[in-house]
Write a structure and sequence with these properties.
41% of the residues lie in helices and 20% in strands. With 276 residues, it is an alpha/beta fold. The strands form two sheets. The protein has a six-stranded mixed sheet, with helices on both faces. It has helices at residues 15-20, 26-34, 36-44, 51-63, 86-97, 105-119, 174-183, 186-201, 227-250; strands spanning 8-11, 68-71, 100-103, 131-139, 146-157, 160-169, 206-213, 220-223. α2 crosses α9. It has a domain at 3-46 and 121-250: Lambda Exonuclease, Chain A, CATH 3.90.320.
């Protein structure tokens, strides 16, 4: 990505090209808040995680875009159906090297079933008209650092421009999903993506998560974060950017220096069970 393309929205940018672009993403911001040393190592040693294959496939099916999904040949699998044989592992690695998402046949069936369930849910209208996978590049107003984001879906809902982010989950119940949102920093993502669209288009955008369970009956919920969560996300994004700015300037990426005195959550003494 050349510098002159900053402060712009790109439609149809190849996923690999986006991830190879400079600039801090919200996933990078979350990592650098946790540990700058890990962030630095990961950016120098990018790799595809197997856990993301299913999510990529589900996104592609729902949004109609994304990397090509291919089925692992069943004759390469072990007798128990696992992709643990040498032949299966080599086939999977080759598929990933070609920019494809390898899944077993039964996993592909689940992805298809999830897409069907979503089409029948209350969330379906959100995906009937819009644009998928827009790539955003802009400069942070406070630090002038280049930032980037890749949105799942942008639509207009009741005359309001809306960013929609699709999440696969174990439990789409909003009361449970909020814990997942906190754990994985979804409030940072909400703030980050809205900032990008608001900055580049000059129009305020709403933001919702569409959460879908990965087990039958593949239930779906639409979740919007409250103002407190969004404010905390914005604050954390600012801290992450300032930390990134400092690490770049000093060329220092701290791990966990020093000695740390810790407590153990919910630690309780044992009950005395021996009676004299």
């Amino acid at each position: 990505m050349m510098p002159e393309t900053w402060n712009d929205v790109h439609q149809g940018l190849d996923e690999a090209e986006y991830h190879a672009s400079p600039g801090l993403s919200v996933s990078g911001a979350k990592t650098i808040l946790d540990c700058p040393a890990r962030f630095d190592w990961q950016r120098r040693n990018p790799r595809q995680k197997r856990v993301f294959d299913f999510g990529h496939a589900a996104h592609g099916k729902v949004l109609g875009v994304g990397l090509e999904v291919v089925a692992v040949p069943t004759d390469l699998l072990a007798s128990n159906g696992a992709a643990s044989t040498k032949a299966a592992k080599e086939w999977i690695e080759q598929a990933r090297a070609e920019g494809k998402v390898p899944l077993k046949v039964e996993e592909l069936a689940v992805v298809d079933a999830m897409a069907t369930a979503l089409e029948r849910s209350d969330a379906a209208p959100l995906f009937r008209d819009g644009q998928a996978e827009q790539s955003l590049f802009w400069l942070d107003e406070a630090t002038n650092l280049p930032l980037r984001a890749r949105l799942d879906w942008v639509t207009t809902w009741h005359d309001v421009p809306l960013v929609v982010d699709y999440k696969t989950t174990t439990n789409a119940n909003p009361d449970q999903f909020r814990w997942e949102a906190g754990k994985f920093g979804y409030h940072m993502q909400d703030s980050w993506y809205r900032e990008g669209m608001d900055t580049l288009t000059g129009t305020p955008h709403g933001f919702v998560f569409v959460a879908q369970e990965k087990e039958p009956p593949y239930l779906v919920s639409v979740v919007e974060l409250d103002d407190d969560a969004r404010d905390i996300g914005t604050q954390r994004n600012g801290v992450a950017r300032r930390l990134y700015e400092w690490c770049l300037a000093e060329d220092r990426w701290p791990g966990y220096p020093g000695i740390h005195r810790i407590s153990i959550p919910n630690a309780r003494p044992a009950k005395e069970t021996v009676h004299v």
